[in-house]
TrEMBL record:
Domain (Cation efflux protein transmembrane): residue spans on this chain: 17-208
Name of this protein: Cation diffusion facilitator family transporter
Transmembrane segments: 20-44, 83-102, 114-140, 184-200
Primary localization: membrane
Family membership: Belongs to the cation diffusion facilitator (CDF) transporter (TC 2.A.4) family.
């Protein structure tokens, strides 16, 4: 029987369905609590939770697309659907934050207040526990698979947990200050906006192409030296990530009088070792060196 492994796509699908189920239940609870108490902050937090469900749908769609094999139009596969999904989630978060700023401003301008009670306290505590659990699951999957869309969805959950915590703290002082509800809504909006900014920034950087991590470069150079323990000076590294598929290209220097076959054999051995150790598809360009 074939062993089931949670790769990047499987993690995304599992996390996506768990998120949708949990978020729909929490949305119903929060929205009900918001209507009962008349709290704009709780209602805003409820819609934030529902937006998490939409982001989870995007996670599922991205996971399905990223699983498609390479084809003529996409020779390196469809793995970057993961990054596009993360970018879309960031945009959705930004829109949610903007809407909450407007709603909170109207609440403060009109001098509206809310009457919090036991219902609001219980619902907020449940929300904090559930959302942080979903965030931890998403972050764990992101660490295991290096998935930016799982990390983005994890921050979506975390921002919801934090906003619920802020509202919970505000409930205990809301009876003393009429403006607490509107102020909390504003704070929640800015927290969501900042999380959106980080998600959008990270996904754009990855889509445009990032410089390789220095530790990775050091490890790759060490691998080259293990195969050919001479001064081959690995340089001009380029690392291109396509989800589960990563392409690495770089240059090495070999003696100018070395035969083409020997140079080819050395390059091939290095490429095989990089594939074995890191799972990367490596392409090496050989340059002549005047002295051994």
């Amino acid at each position: 029987m074939k062993k089931f492994e949670l790769n990047k796509s499987n993690w995304a699908e599992t996390e996506g369905w768990l998120s949708i189920a949990g978020n729909i239940v929490l949305f119903i609870l929060k929205y009900w609590a918001g209507l009962v108490t008349g709290s704009i902050a709780i209602i805003a937090d409820a819609w934030h939770t529902l937006s998490d469900s939409l982001s989870s749908v995007i996670v599922l769609i991205g996971a399905k697309i990223s699983k498609k094999p390479a084809d003529e139009d996409h020779p390196f596969g469809h793995g970057r659907a993961d990054l596009i999904s993360a970018f879309i989630i960031g945009i959705l978060l930004l829109l949610v934050a903007f809407d909450f700023v407007i709603e909170s401003y109207h609440t403060l301008r009109d001098g509206e207040s809310s009457q919090f009670g036991t219902i609001a306290i219980v619902v907020m505590i449940i929300s904090i526990v559930v959302k942080e659990a979903l965030a931890q699951f998403a972050f764990y999957g992101a660490r295991k698979t290096n998935s930016k869309v799982l990390k983005a969805d994890g921050w979506h959950h975390r921002s919801d947990a934090i906003s619920s915590f802020v509202i919970l703290a505000g409930i205990f002082v809301g009876k003393y200050f009429w403006w607490v509800d509107g102020a909390l809504g504003m704070i929640v909006a800015f927290m969501i906006g900042y999380a959106a900014y980080e998600i959008i920034r990270d996904s754009i950087h990855s889509i445009l192409g990032e410089s390789p991590d220095q530790k990775l470069l050091d490890d790759l150079k060490k691998t080259c030296e293990e195969i050919y323990p001479h001064a081959i000076n690995p340089h001009h590294f380029h690392v291109h990530s396509y989800g589960d598929h990563t392409e690495v290209t770089f240059h090495i220097k070999l003696p100018h009088d070395m035969s083409i076959k020997t140079g080819h054999d050395i390059s091939t051995e290095i490429e095989k070792e990089i594939k074995r150790k890191y799972g990367f598809a490596a392409t090496i360009h050989v340059e002549p060196r005047d002295h051994v």
